[in-house]
Amino acid sequence: MICLGIESTAHTFGIGIVKDGKVLSNIKRTYTTESGGIIPMESAKHHQENKNEIYFEALDEASIKEGDIDVISFSQGPGLAPCLLEGMKFAKELTTKLKKSIVPVNHCIAHLEIGKLTGAKNPVMLYVSGANTQIIAYEEGKYRIFGETLDIGVGNFIDNFARYLGIGFPGGPTIQKLAEKGEHYIELPYKVKGMDITLSGILTNLKQKVESKKYSTNDLAYSMQETIFAMLVETAERALAHTGKNELLLGGGVACNSRLQEMCKIMCKERKAKFFCPDNSLLQDNGAMIAYTGEILFNNGDYIDVKDIDITDILPRQRTDDVEIKYK
Q1: pLDDT digits over 236-251, tens only?
Q2: Is the pTM higher than 0.90?
Q3: Nearest partner of 55 among 93, 20, 6, judged by Cα
Q4: CA-based angle 8:12:14, to the nearest 5?
Q5: How confident is the model at residue 37 (pLDDT cuts 50, 70, 90)?
Q6: Does domain 2-111+285-322 match CATH 3.30.830.10?
Q7: Which fold has domain 122-282?
Q8: CB of 262 within 8 A of CB of 236?
Q9: CATH code 3.30.420.40 region(s) in the chain
Q10: At what angle do helices 172-180 and 217-243 cross, to 10 degrees?
Q11: DSSP letters along 260-310, please?
C-alpha cells in the first residue's frame, strides 16, 4: 500500500511517500526571510508556488507513478490557516484526479508516530516545535498532554529572540551556533510549574539584557539555551516518573538542536531510561510523517471516500488530545 502525505502547517511544504511503513521519498521546501518572522499569507503563497514541483520530485525519488498511489493524506491541524488550506486544497485536487480516499492527519500525532521508526514502543514524547511545546504520552485511547507551554511555543520563543537580534527566520540554527561560542552563563528566570512551563517572561528579560549592552550575544544565546532546555528536560523527567514509562522520544524542529539532545541523553542515562531521536529530516516538518500516519489510519478504516471529500476541512486549533486513537 502506498500513501502520499502533504505537510503545510506553517513555513514548510513537504510531500512524502510511504509504502508499507517504509519511507520512499521525503521532499520539502521551506519559506524563509532575511529579517522578521513568518508571514502566513506569504508562506501560503510559497506553498502554492512550489507544490507541483515538490509533488513530481517526490514521485521521482520514490520511483513511482501517480497511478501507484493508493491514498492521499494531509495535515489537518494544528497550524496556520492559510498554509493548512493550501495543503488541503492540493490533497483534494489529487484525491479527485486519482479517485482515491483522503485521510486528515493531526500534525502533532504525526511527529510522534514517525518517531517510532527509531524503535520506541510506548514513549513519553517531548514535542518541541514553533507553536507547540508539549509532553505527550498514550493513555486510555488518546495521546494525552501531561505538560505544555502556558504561553508561547519554544520554537516561536527562539525565533522571537533571534528576530530581536536582527536574525532572519528561522532563527534556531543561528542561535545554536552563537550559543556554542558562549563562555559565561547569565542568570535568567526559570519558569516551571509542575509539568508546564512559561516563556514570555524569560523573553522579556532577554530583551532587557540585550538593550543593556552589558552582555555578549554569544553568552545570551548560550544562557538562553541552557535555561530553556533545562526546563524542558526537568518536565520530561517528571513525566517519565509520573507515567512510569521508560522511553523518551524527541520530536519537532527544535529537537534538531544538538545541545537539547545531549541534555536529554544525560537525563535518560541517569534514570536508566531509553532515549530516542529521529534523524533531523524527520524531526523537522515533513510530508513523510503525514504519509506514515495516514497509512496507519487508512489501514484501520479511518479515512474519507472521494465522494465525501467536501466534508473535509482544516482544524487550525486542533489539539493532540482532541483526537481519539482507534488503532491502539
Answers
A1: 999 999 999 999 999 9
A2: yes
A3: 6
A4: 70
A5: confident
A6: no
A7: Nucleotidyltransferase; domain 5 (3.30.420)
A8: no
A9: 2-111+285-322, 122-282
A10: 110
A11: HHHHHHHHHHHTT-EEE---HHHHSS-HHHHHHHHHHHHHTT--B-GGGGG
